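Mods, move this if it's the wrong board.
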Amino acid sequence: MTSAKVVWPQMHAVKGVRIGAASAGIKKPGRLDVLVFAVDEGATVAGVFTQSAFRAAPVIVAREHLASSEIRFLVINSGNANACTGERGLADARATCEQLAQLGGVSATQVLPFSTGVIGEYLPVQKISAVLPDAIQSLDEAAWEKAARAIMTTDTCPKGASIQIEHEGKTITVSGVAKGAGMIRPNMATMLSFVATDAAVEQSVLAELLKTAVNKSFNRITIDGDTSTNDSCILIASGKSGAPQISSASGALYEKLSDAVVSVMQQLAHAIVRDGEGATKFVTINVTGGANSEECLKAAYAIAHSPLVKTALYASDANWGRIVAAVGYAGISGLDISGVKLWLDDVLVVEGGARHPDYTDAAGTSVVKKLEFTIRVELGRGSSDETVWTSDLSHEYVTINAEYRT
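Not the wrong board. Structure tokens:
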């Protein structure tokens, strides 16, 4: 498993954001499965959510609340997705918000709910309600690891990332956690992620910053091509750093913060791929020379989603024919194969529509045997390029997903 390479990092507290967790026994007794974020008054919050038509109840409610209120709390549970649960599911999500709001002395619309776990089962509201006081009582700025553990489902390890930057003598922190190991695909992966900064950012600018960061991170990973019902990514800006407020998507401070948020989210996205269900390889797919970004992504995802490519990589088989076949069916109009090149790391495999005369299977195999490597494709059509990160597909992936509900 590549998850051994996912190491819990040093996490910096974010002023104005506190974290509490508790165990409700939703799916497994004794494990943390209820999480609360408390956000100081005056913070701004932005979110992006799954594009699935079967959006889970908490996604629907969170989007409603985010559009109408100043957010003060987040409540998250693992072990149950509260998805495909109809009107009762919506009522359960709202009830959880109401109960936390009463404890926190705020309006129910100032609470955002999130859930992850098995689809189609009703939320155990009473179990969650019973431990919300414990979660509130344990609120702590430093409890990032508890946050990461409380949202895990098939993850084998907690995932976190944290960065500090300096601006005009002020230290600004960006810290975040994520969960996800399977059903990972863009338009949010099957994941939840919560990232916070103590920078001061106007809400509309924060939303733009988040969209940019997600498109460079969580929307560039895939494990199995599936998109979930519950995917959500939230960015909180508490405004407690003392640095000037960012009121436009330009300028030195905005660029510094944007780079930091992208870095944190890319670290989290990479950790999700490294911990992919049954994954043994971390694979970077870089497509260059496209006429535009769209066709670069078409080629990259055709490779990343191909079961034939992914199973060959698991077997350390440099079956490059499967890679060029995927590029060929990616839907790039008028692709001239004579301009396409393929590398495995620095090993040139294909050029001019055929295997390069100097290529050997031994050279290709030496690359794909590694735990981490790059598949690079040059389309020869322009100057656009895109990068996607993925994993291989193993026997263990089948076992995990065959036994998920048992």
